[in-house]
Design brief:
The chain is α/β, with parallel strands linked by helices. It is built from ten helices and twelve strands. A hairpin with a 2-residue loop joins strand 5 and strand 6. It is globular.
Length: 277
């Protein structure tokens, strides 16, 4: 039996074992997927240990995503672009690093009826999640992206890779959001504001009132299932979706990398939605 893992610290909260083992059972594959707590200073040691086991690969969450990049024998285009690895495939002693976060986000966005093509998008936050989200919005055909962050310099740094002027940094303030919202038809929250167990909330959600009618709001948070951001957007008549779809689709793409098998993604997503309900 081949082994797969997810590593992180903390890791007890991870839904990855439930998601991946549900898929493996449904596909009849002889794998088992387990969570392992690995402190941030043990990334390299874990990788060498995994190479010595009957391990086909592993997923990685914080604090390992960036630590893994220089340890890989090969990096996918997305992993190199984001500077982060969330999926490691082990093949003949070599480690191949992938990042399925961006692809999972874009697929979830489209499945929710929020295709970014032709839209101007308001992205909130410029951290690790945004580094995967923003390039996929551009590659998915977004007309433009306003990237709002409390630290303007960080937003500007993330915008720098685009040489065609489709990305613009802005401050994450009430005034800035209210000014930009009327120009956008899609909002993507990449911050932890509103997450279960997190004290932070948005200073104001009044900017949602300025969105054009029938806009979309996507929150990467999936706990709670409906954040205050999504609730206000829904009551305002906008289409909303939480981050559960992204979690599911990035896992589907990761399992395809691990096993080299094409998966009926939509059928599998439905099964996982029922499992996680």
């Amino acid at each position: 039996m081949k082994r797969l893992y997810v590593i992180g610290d903390p890791i007890a909260h991870s839904k990855s074992p439930l998601i991946q083992n549900t898929m493996l059972r449904a596909l009849g594959m002889d794998y088992v997927y387990e969570a392992r707590r690995v402190p941030g200073d043990e990334t390299a040691r874990w990788l060498e240990k995994a190479k010595g086991e009957p391990c086909a690969g592993f997923n990685a969450t914080m604090p390992h995503k960036r630590n893994l990049v220089p340890l890989m024998d090969e990096l996918s285009e997305d992993a190199r672009l984001y500077g982060a690895v969330n999926t490691v495939c082990l093949r003949d002693g070599r480690a191949i690093g992938h990042n399925t976060d961006g692809a999972g986000f874009l697929q979830a966005l489209r499945e929710a009826g929020l295709d970014p093509a032709g839209r101007t998008v308001l992205v909130l936050g410029a951290g690790g999640a945004a580094s995967a989200v923003v390039p996929k919005l551009v590659k998915g055909g977004a007309r433009g992206v306003f990237l709002c962050n409390r630290t303007l310099e960080r937003a500007a740094a993330l915008c720098a890779w685009d040489k065609e002027g489709r990305l613009a940094p802005a401050e994450l303030t009430r005034e800035s959001l209210e000014r930009l919202a009327p120009r956008c038809s899609l909002v993507v929250n990449c911050t932890s504001l509103g997450m279960t167990g997190t004290a932070g909330q948005f200073e104001s959600l009044d900017f949602l009132d300025g969105l054009p009618a029938g806009s979309g709001v996507f929150d990467l948070i999936y706990s709670p299932a409906e954040t205050e951001l999504l609730r206000r957007a829904r009551l305002g008549g906008h289409r909303t979706a939480n981050g559960l779809g992204m979690l599911i689709w990035q896992a589907i793409f990761a399992l395809e990398h691990f096993t080299g098998t094409r998966i009926d993604g939509r059928a599998m997503a439905r099964l996982l939605e029922e499992t996680l309900a």
